[in-house]
Amino acid sequence: MGNTKNMVARIPNLVDWSTGEVRLMSAKCNSCGTYFFPKEHYQHRPGCSREGVEDGLLPNKGKLASYTVQYYPCPPPFKTEKNITPYGIGLVEFENEKIQVAGIITDTDLKSLKLGMEMETTTLTMFTNEEKQEVVTWAFRAVK
Amino acid sequence: MRDVYVIGTGIHPWEGFSEKVFADFAAVAVGRALKDAEIEWKKIQSIMAGIFIYGGNAGHLSGQYLESIFGETGVPVVNVYNACATGSAAIRMAFNSVAAGEADTALAFGADVSPKGFLTAKSDNAVQDRDVIRWKMTAMPNPVYWALECRKRMAKYDTTEEDLAQVKVLMSEYGSKNPDARFKKAYSLDEVLKSAYVCDPLRLYEICPVSTGAAAVIVTADKELIRKADRPVKINATTMGSSMYGDPTIRISALSCPAVPEAPMLSESYSASRQAYEKSGMGPQDVDLLELPDNSSWHYLVYLEVCGFCKEGEAEKMLRDGETRIGGKVAVNPSGGFSSHGEALSAQAIWQVIECASQLRGRCGPRQVENPKVAMAQTYGLMGNSGTTILSV
Question: Is 3.40.47.10 the CATH number for B131-208+235-392?
Answer without folding.
Answer: yes
